[in-house]
Design a protein that fits this description.
The protein has 131 residues and is of the alpha/beta class. The chain is built from two helices and six strands; from the N terminus they run βαββαβββ.
Length: 131
Amino acid sequence: MPTIQIEVRQQYPQAVEEQLLNSVFHCVKTAFQLPEYDRNIRLVVHEAHRFQYMSHLAQPEYFTLISIDCFAGRSLETKRNLYQQMVKSLGEIGIPADHILIHLRESALENWEIRGGQAACDVDLGFKVDV
């Protein structure tokens, strides 16, 4: 049950925003082997002057920061697969590969409250974390 935040420097048409949200969610869902209902994702659109970027970018308006907070336990291979699939998927939307930064933050299950006040380590999640 990761939480995902996508931050961009430009306003996209609604259809592109939905494609961006769906593409990122699909990549995380597939790589982490999550159920379809486990969707917690948001898109934040910054005014360009409020979201600085790395100066070497050829098209800074496409800079995209993706932050994923998730349970600890995924393998390095799973993470590598996630990064590669996400860059490929966003490339299909027109975002250059070197304009994407993905930040994965992991924390122990006992540090997440879910399902009405329970620690995540105390409930059956319905999926495996160690993939």
